[in-house]
Amino acid sequence: MSYLVLARKSRPQNFDQVVGQVPVVKTLKNSLVRDRIAHAILFSGVRGVGKTTLARIMAKAINCEQKTADGNPCNTCRSCTEITSDSSLDLYEIDGASNRGIQEIRELKEKIRFLPTSSKYRVIIIDEVHMLTNEAFNALLKTLEEPPDHVFFMFATTELHKIPITILSRCQRYELKRVSAEDLNQHFNKLSTEEGVQIESGALDLIVRESEGSVRDGLSLLDQVFSYGEKQITIDDVVQVLGLVSRDIILGITQALLEKDPGTAFHKLSEAFEFGVDLKRFTADLLNAFRTLILCKIDGCQELIDIPAQELETFNSLAKQHELNTIHMKMNLLMQGVEEMKFSTTPRLALESTFLKIIEADEVVPVTTILTKLETLLAGQPLPEKSRPAIPTSKKKTVEGSVVPLVPADNPKPPVAAKQAPPPPQRQVAATHQSTENDDTQAVSHNQRDIRRDWPGFIEHVKDRKLWMAQDLQRTESVKEIDGELHLHYGDHTNCTMLRQKDNSKLLTEFVLDFFQKDLTVHFITPEEDDDVSAEKSNSPHKLRQTLANDSLVLMTTEIFNGQIGDIRVGPRSR
Predict the structure, then answer these.
(1) Highest mean pLDDT of the ranges 41-55, 380-394, 423-437, 460-474
(2) Which residues, 6 or more positions from 113, have their beta carbon under 8 angstroms from its beta carbon?
(3) Packing angle between helix 262-274 and helix 347-360, nearest 10 degrees?
(4) pLDDT per residue as tens digits for the range 296-312
(5) pTM of the model
(6) Which of 265-269, 366-370, 519-523, 538-542 shows the lowest mean pLDDT across its residues?
(7) Structural domains in the chain, sorted by start
(8) Distance between CA atoms of 251 and 231, rounded to whole angstroms?
(9) Is 529 strand, coil or helix?
């Protein structure tokens, strides 16, 4: 007899040998024990999980002459041995793909009218039943709903959604799940021992991963590895035979991308290319590694990870070293790079460029954290010590023998890096030879303050009350008092957009009155336009980008967090 492959040789002959479908097996066995067998049963699921196998076991169990107490067929009686050897006259196993027309169904209906020849029941198994035509399904409806007492139908399909609802409602459905990695590992290890082959645990893990929850796929790969190797199978044997990328390479690249190590990432990628790996499969494995890290970081999601325990421990250890937002951001960058690589004439270069982009990406700071800090600063409250930007303590200036820090000790707010306003007159540190002049300045009453001379003091006055408003006032090119009006000249109207708002303009007028003791009307002067900015111009893409770039909150954020403005996108594509 010719060689029998493992997928056929190790096919389960009773319910206890079925791998990984415990709920379905328990239900079927109980239905047999309690004599509650449905006349039409539909098994669905992905390839190689046991649909047709369960249908055959059910056919044997229904006709078994020496049925066991737990519902399993005996596999020794005449009916069981005939079904096992495919010689039973009362078992019809039909391929739905090649017998899909209405004529085949009509012939089937004629055959089932007759009583079984040697068994108690006739069993009809239709594999890939979703391939039947609509007309064939319609011809089967009445018979399926009220079949003869001596007939049972068993259907198997990989595409449940293609079967008409009228058929589904007449069947008892069993949805088979993918077999877990643990169950596959135990099953393959047992078969290897029976075949007299020793296989490394890492090599077996690779075969389990490649089988993707399918027992039949895994057995085919195991058969191929057995043919290549000797009595001892190593990881290298599996990698070479199946053309895989070692998990060490995938883990090494993932760790290098997270730890900003371009040298290791590029060397590992070069090793993968030496294997002649398919880039599509390689990038899919890399993305799956990042997905595993994300699931490791989310509480209660580790049960969604179907990988060997030793590999899971490695991923857990790596995930603890990085924040969830950082891993998610880098996975998104990798996904974008994979999409770009599909259309590139130099896919390897595109992938290497993606690696550099991922490595250069900084740690992610949650938006909520930034907004909280901004609200704290705008409220005039000091930041917590761990959130406060570092202030260099070594930079000090000397005024005639006295040492004065750049930031006054009583001022808890961090310095602004853009345009540092000079301290107000009342806070200036006077030198000895300037004491008389400054005493005169401090003696000047509020009513005698000059707009141009005391403008820096006014900005400091506003800064203690509205930090963002002081930032906008610092961008004025010149200030003038003309006929009861305060003219503020700006080189770009976007620098005073917020100040022009009604509530803000009113508040600014109150600050002017409070500091200068003058009832002045604030008037903004810009070279591009008058006070009423044209809505059409301000809504153009160029103007929108310019407005966003010069927004006071944006500029203050970049100054506080030592960042920089990147690409500014406007329009529907950026949403």
Answers:
(1) 41-55
(2) 148
(3) 160
(4) 999 888 778 877 777 88
(5) 0.58
(6) 538-542
(7) 6-175 (3.40.50.300), 181-242 (1.10.8.60), 264-360 (1.20.272), 453-575 (no CATH)
(8) 29
(9) coil
